[in-house]
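Q&A log
Question type: sequence-to-structure
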Amino acid sequence: MPVTNSNRQGIVDPLTALLFSAAAAGEGMSQEACRTLPIFDGHQRYDLKLAFKRMDKVTAEKGYAGPVVVCSVSYEPIAGHRANIPLIKYLSEGREMEIALAPIAGTRLVAPFRLSVVSMLANLMIEANRFETIMAPAPAGTPPNVAHPSDISPTRGDGVDERCVEARSGLVVCQEVPEPAPKRR
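Response status: OK
Response body:
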């Protein structure tokens, strides 16, 4: 089924779908974090349906330790997919998948901490071993709710340089700046 213009309305891209609002301010973690995510990846339109399963506690090796909302995940292809592709067929058959969502400090956002998929052959679990958030004020003169790139942040205590970007939500996402490659002679 081809993707239509109506399939492209009210959607999010896969990366944006990983960060979404959990609850109103002050409510903390709640089952409202589990909901349907309408996703368009540039080729396919599908829904990831998250349904509340339970509250759990997690501890990263570095960073976050506390409650997470655990949701079951079901994949529903909408348009742009080929039903004969094994992965599409596999995912749409209602596999046992779940995602644990952890709060991002200082925001009303949650992000995946753990993803698990159960199958007859093997179980897959992807879990964060480091889950840290750093809140930084916006530079003076930055209009509200506008993402902006920053310069390289000061070196962290461990000697690593980072490049940070602040999203409209106020969340600052940082990535390590790789060392430049040595010049060849």
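Response note: The CA atoms of residues 155 and 161 lie 5 Å apart.
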